[in-house]
Amino acid sequence: MNWSQYAVIITGLFAILNPIGAIPVFLDLTTDQDESERKRTAMITSIAVALILMLSAWLGDSILSFFGISIDAFRVGGGILILLMAVDMMHARPSRAKRTDEEHEEAQDKDSVAIVPLAIPLLAGPGAISTVILDAHTLGGVTERIVLTLIIVGMAGTVWLALYLATPISAWLGKTGKNILVRLMGLILMAIAVEFIVTGTKAMWG
Questions:
Q1: Residue 177 clears pLDDT 70, i.e. is over it
Q2: CB-based burial of residue 143 (10 Å sphere; 0-12 exposed, 13-18 middle, 19+ buried)?
Q3: In the predicted model, what is the mean pLDDT of the chain?
Q4: Which residues contact 190 (CB under 8 A, 6 or more apart)?
Q5: From the CB of residue 175, how many other CB atoms can be counted at a distance below 10 Å?
Q6: Separation of alpha carbons 73 and 187, rounded Å
Q7: Rounded to whole angstroms, what are the CA distances from 115 to 35, 51, 173, 193?
Q8: Which of 19, 42, 111, 174 could disulfide-link to 163, CB 3.0 to 4.6 Å?
Q9: What is the CA radius of gyration of the chain?
Q10: How far apart are the two ends of the chain, measured CA to CA in Å?
Q11: Quick count: other Cβ atoms within 10 Å of Cβ 165?
């Protein structure tokens, strides 16, 4: 692995976590919380995101082996899932692969929304978990996975910062600015998804 490949991993993970796109949902679900409670929710959410993705990075291969799923089949399946998410992002709309309207309505009645639905499935959802498992498999070595773990911690820190500053970021970007960023992230995800699908298909049928 060289630094350009790590840069691709960082960019892809940031795009699929999409912390900027999560800000409106975060503000909506924490509307009844005061500032200190909202900051605590942001911290718990970011910690949960880090733990979920780190477990995926270190245990993903074992889980796939347990269910008898080849990494190439998983790469194609994950690529399709990410592609569907990317299409929704290109239209600047919430992806139902991350959450449904029913889940959102149910979350309104919960006392704590930090872990469910904010951490999972909104941020560290199926797409992010799939991406981390595939990245970890590609890296292979222990040292490289440690670097991936550090990247995950950094991305969780980015999630915390985005949610911590959710109100000023939302006011500064406005709806148009947020939609532009979400569409840009969707374009990056679409390219990643196509790469996953093509690579997995070639390995399976080549």
A1: yes
A2: exposed
A3: 88
A4: 83, 86, 87, 90
A5: 10
A6: 23
A7: 18, 11, 26, 26
A8: 42
A9: 17
A10: 24
A11: 13
Rounded CA separation 124/50 (Å): 8
Both structure tokens of 199: 């690579």
pLDDT at 98 over 70: no
Distance of CA 5 to CAs 37, 56, 173, Å?
38, 20, 30
CB 137 within 8 A of CB 61: yes
The Cα-based distances of 184 to 4, 96, 97, 151, 189 in angstroms read 20, 19, 19, 21, 9
Q: How much is the average pLDDT of 14-39? A: 91
Share of the chain above pLDDT 90, in %: 62
Cα–Cα distance, 145 to 166 (Å, whole number): 31
Each domain of the chain, given as residue ranges in start order, spans 36-205
Query: Which pair of structure tokens corresponds to residue 160?
Result: 């915390």
Q: Is the pTM of this model over 0.85?
A: yes
Q: How far is CA 6 from each of CA 54, 55, 65, 77, 154, rounded to the nearest angstrom?
A: 16, 19, 26, 23, 13
